[in-house]
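Example noted here:
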Amino acid sequence: MEFVKQQATNKAPADWFTGDVWFDQLYAGQEPSRMYANMVRFSPGARTHWHVHALGQTLHVVSGVALIGTRDGTVFEAHPGQTVVCPPDEEHWHGATPDRFMEHIAMWEVRRDGGEEVIWNEPVTDEQYNRTRTRTRSH
């Protein structure tokens, strides 16, 4: 059993995010684990840029309403307690609504073959961000 040493909060890099975003690294897997987990806090209107995770990404919403967009133009809403799985190689973005903070735990696996785990692309436009949302429901 090991208690992980808490790391300092970091400001997310502007070349990967629009708006103010902070994260706390919760876990960085040590062999044989490949898991990484961050608590990510988005200010109102803040969002990631378009990106792809080679091995997928799981988002668990802690507070606020998360918006998750896909290249086909769909923008999903996810609410506290909901978990969303973005499959490997699916280009997507996620962020907060315009009027509320949002926190989620982001979980992903890193590649052990030296390949890129995340490929970051261009910013999400206001038009893409403001598309009609698809509500999700807990089951």
User: Anything to note?
Assistant: The CA atoms of residues 11 and 22 lie 4 Å apart. The chain has one helix and 14 strands. The two ends are 34 Å apart (CA to CA). The helical segments are 126-129.
